[in-house]
Write a structure and sequence with these properties.
Elements: E1 2-10, E2 21-27, E3 30-35, E4 44-47, E5 53-56, E6 58-63, H1 76-85, E7 88-93, H2 104-114, E8 120-125, H3 139-145, E9 149-150, H4 160-170, E10 177-180, H5 184-187, E11 192-193, H6 196-201, E12 205-206, H7 208-225, E13 229-232, H8 237-248, E14 253-258, H9 285-297, E15 302-304, H10 312-315, H11 332-338, H12 345-352, H13 354-359, E16 375-385, E17 404-414, E18 417-420
Parallel strand pairs: 1-4, 1-5, 6-7, 7-8, 8-9, 10-13, 11-12, 13-14, 14-15
Antiparallel strand pairs: 1-2, 2-3, 5-16, 16-17, 17-18
Length: about 425
C-alpha cells in the first residue's frame, strides 16, 4: 500500500525536518521519500489538509483496557480503537485487571492478543503479587515475557521495605518501577481534593500532603537504592517542587501527570458529577499552574490520558460510592492543547512521544527515509466538538461530551496499517 501525505508540517525536535512543511511517501509501511513536493502515483492513498501536522506516533504510558476480567467496561480491541482515535500508536496497559498482570502468563496473554494491532500494546506488570502489597511479583519472568515496567497502578506501595527490595531487584535486568504517590493514612478514603470545594460540598477531602509525603519517601528510596523510579499521577505544585529539587541533585527520578489535572480544578465538582471523581483528584488553580511550570522547565517528563473506563453501574450511583476515573484517550491531546497556555507545541509533542519511550527504554521511532512509518497526524488549530458518537471506547464515562476543543487528531499510521478519524 502506498500513502502520500501532502504538505504536512513536521513537529519533532529529533529530526532535521522539524518545523518544515513536506510531502511524505510511505510504501509498505516504510517512509520511502520526504520532499518539498512529491507526485502521487497510481493507486496511492492521498492524505491532505489545510493545516496538517505530523509527528512520530504518540505514546500513553498509563491506560486501562480492563482485559481480562472487566470486559464489560473495555477490552483490548475497543481500547485499541480508542487509542488510535486519540492519536496513539503505543500504549502501556496498567496491571489492574482480573487477575492482575502478575505472572508471565498474564503478560503473554496481552502480547498475543494485540500482536497484529495498529497500536503497540506494552504490558506493565505488578510490583507485588496480585497487587496485595505483601510479596514481590514474578517481575523477572514478566520482564522476559515482554513487561516493560512494573506498577501496582493506583494502589500505592505503602510498605517501604517492599518498594526498596523491588527497586534493588529490577536493577538486575534494567527495568523500572512506576508508582502512584498516596499515603493512605493521610488520604483516609477521601473523595475529592481537600479545600474550599470539599467543605462546601460536605465531602471528605484528600489533602495534598497525602501525595507530597509519598513523593518524598519514594525519592528517598530511589536515592538509597540508586535505582530509577517513575512517579506517576503527580497533581500538586509542591510535589513538582520536590521532584524539581531531586532532579537538580542528580537523582534518577522521572514523573508524569494526567491531562485532566492541567485542564480542570476542583470547582468542576460543584454539581456532584461523578465523571469528575478521579484519583488523583482535581486540585486547585495554583496546583495547575505548578504542573504547567513543571512541564515548561522539564520537571514533568510525560503526560498520560489515565484512560480508565467505568460502566454505568460504577458511575451512576451516589458520589461517595462512584468509582474513580474517566475515559481519556480520545480527548487527551485536545484537552492538553486547549489548556497548554505558553507551553510550545513542540514541548507537548515531546511529552507524548520521545520522553515516555525514553522512560520505558523503548525504541524511538524516527521520521526519516528508510524508517518504519510510526506516525500521528493532527491539526493543532482545528476547533471541534466532542460528541458521544465520537467515542470508540466501550464506556462513556467522560464529562467532555459537548465540549468544544482546539486541536484534533486526524489519524495514525503504524505497522503497515492506517486509521483515520471521520
Amino acid at each position: 500500500m502506498k500513502i502520500l501525505i501532502k504538505s504536512a508540517k513536521i513537529i519533532n525536535i529529533n529530526t532535521i525536518y522539524n518545523g518544515k512543511v513536506v510531502d511524505v511517501l510511505i510504501e509498505n509501511g516504510i517512509i520511502k521519500s520526504i520532499k518539498t513536493k512529491l507526485s502521487a502515483e497510481k493507486n496511492t492513498k492521498i492524505i491532505e489538509g489545510k493545516n496538517l501536522h505530523l509527528s512520530v506516533g504518540w505514546m500513553d504510558m498509563q491506560v486501562s483496557f480492563c482485559d481480562p476480567g472487566f470486559e464489560q467496561k473495555e477490552d483490548l480491541k475497543s481500547g485499541i480503537k480508542a487509542a488510535a482515535a486519540g492519536g496513539f500508536t503505543s500504549v502501556g496497559v496498567i496491571s489492574s485487571t482480573n487477575p492482575p498482570i502478575h505472572t508471565k502468563g498474564d503478560v503473554i496473554y496481552i502480547k498475543n492478543k494485540t500482536i497484529d494491532s495498529i497500536v503497540d500494546v506494552y504490558p506493565i506488570g505488578t510490583v507485588s503479587f496480585k497487587q496485595e502489597g505483601k510479596d514481590i511479583s514474578e517481575m523477572y519472568d514478566m520482564h522476559q515475557s515482554g513487561a516493560v515496567a512494573f506498577s501496582d497502578d493506583k494502589k500505592a506501595i505503602n510498605d517501604a521495605g517492599l518498594l526498596k527490595r523491588a527497586l534493588l531487584y529490577t536493577q538486575n535486568f534494567n527495568s523500572l518501577i512506576i508508582t502512584h504517590c498516596e499515603e493512605k493514612s493521610i488520604s483516609q478514603g477521601g473523595k475529592i481534593n481537600e479545600g474550599i470545594t470539599s467543605t462546601k460540598l460536605g465531602l471528605k477531602g484528600i489533602p495534598a500532603l497525602a501525595e507530597e509525603l509519598m513523593v518524598s519517601r519514594n525519592i528517598f528510596l530511589s536515592e538509597y537504592t540508586n535505582a530509577p523510579i517513575h512517579l506517576a499521577n503527580i497533581s500538586t505544585k509542591k510535589s513538582v517542587d520536590i521532584i524539581r529539587k531531586a532532579k537538580a541533585n542528580g537523582l534518577k527520578i522521572t514523573a508524569s501527570i494526567n491531562a485532566y489535572n492541567i485542564a480542570l480544578d476542583d470547582s468542576a465538582l460543584i454539581d456532584f458529577d461523578s465523571n469528575y471523581k478521579l484519583n488523583p483528584p482535581l486540585r486547585i488553580k495554583s496546583d495547575i499552574e505548578g504542573l504547567l511550570k513543571g512541564l515548561l522547565d522539564g520537571t514533568i517528563d510525560a503526560i498520560s490520558s489515565d484512560h480508565r473506563p467505568q460502566d454505568i453501574e460504577s458511575k451512576n450511583v451516589e458520589f461517595d460510592d462512584a468509582s474513580n476515573g474517566m475515559i481519556g484517550l480520545e480527548t487527551c491531546f485536545a484537552l492538553i492543547n486547549s489548556n497548554r497556555k505558553n507551553i510550545t507545541l513542540e514541548t507537548i509533542i515531546e511529552t507524548l512521544t520521545t520522553k515516555p519511550r525514553k522512560i520505558l527504554n523503548l525504541q524511538q521511532p524516527i521520521i526519516a527515509e528508510g524508517e518504519p512509518a510510526n506516525i500521528t497526524l493532527f491539526d493543532p488549530e482545528l476547533t471541534w466538538t466532542f460528541e458521544k458518537e465520537n467515542i470508540q471506547s466501550k464506556s462513556s464515562n467522560t464529562p467532555f461530551i459537548g465540549t468544544k476543543f482546539k486541536g484534533k487528531v486526524i489519524g495514525i499510521i503504524n505497522k503497515k496499517q492506517i486509521y483515520l478519524n471521520k
